[in-house]
Description:
91 residues; alpha+beta; 34% helix; 27% strand
Amino acid sequence: MRFRITRHATASPPADALDLLASRIGKRREDIHFARVGGELRAKIDRDEPVAMTSDERTEIGRRAVLEVIEEVCARAPELKTDWFAVSPGR
């Protein structure tokens, strides 16, 4: 599964928010790979959720996993705030 991490439009994050997050999050956390691509950070999850779930359920579980990593990074970096970032399904 792929996800896009972007600046959250309603939270008014600073212009360099994604740069700060990218520098703190690294390239890999557990089974999630991160890469900076243009104006967004991309996340790719290398795990399979149970087949019995719907695609929407699997997507939401993956989105929450990415968001949990962002929350963990922001909790350890006082210059970052979790609500600055939005996680959506990627291409």
